[in-house]
Design goal:
alpha+beta, Alpha-Beta Plaits, Arc Repressor Mutant, subunit A, four-stranded antiparallel β-sheet, two-stranded antiparallel sheet, 6 helices, 6 strands
């Protein structure tokens, strides 16, 4: 078994009154391996360190436990997935300037961003695989696996939301 570190963000069907009630319900449902953030009354973010046979299994079991604990909770994002240069630097223990050099001055083209804007945003797994394969940087395989699993979850969530919107348009 491997320890996978990831974050899940949920929308709640109803705002909570007492954050302790939310935390206790999550703990009782098996989320004793998570740090719970309750900054908004209609959202929660959970940072997990979960033992599992795969990152996908870790994320799926955590999401299931949250849904069991909090009726109507809807997963809206899994992390780590989309990152900017500062996020990459923090995750990898580099400086932002170091990541900027990779992105701008790489002999081998840096991965294309998933979103071009201010700031540009990349899928973390693209950058990790590029660093490993093109630059010989040692990256944690569990981080690669987790970032890919998070991206898969987010792609599925986006696909489901898109299908709902397409049905609304067709009506």
């Amino acid at each position: 078994m491997t320890v996978y570190e990831f974050k899940l963000i949920f929308a709640l069907s109803e705002p909570f009154d007492d954050p302790d009630d939310v935390v206790n319900a999550l703990f009782e449902a098996g989320c004793d391996d998570a740090i719970v953030g309750v900054g908004k009354r209609d959202r929660i973010a959970l940072s997990f360190s979960r033992n599992a046979t795969s990152a996908g299994q870790a994320i799926a079991s955590a999401a299931r436990e949250v849904r069991e604990a909090l009726d109507g909770a809807e997963l809206i994002e899994a992390k780590p997935d989309l990152v900017n240069l500062s996020d990459m630097a923090e995750i990898l223990g580099y400086t932002r300037q170091n990541m900027q050099k990779y992105a701008v001055n790489a002999g081998v083209p840096f991965p294309f961003p998933a979103h071009v804007g201010a700031p540009d945003v990349w899928h973390l797994y693209d950058v990790l695989l590029w660093l490993r394969d093109e630059k010989g940087v040692v990256v944690e395989e569990s981080l690669v696996e987790t970032s890919l699993a998070a991206a898969e979850v987010n792609a599925r969530l986006q696909s489901e939301r898109l299908a709902i919107q397409q049905r609304r348009v067709a009506v």
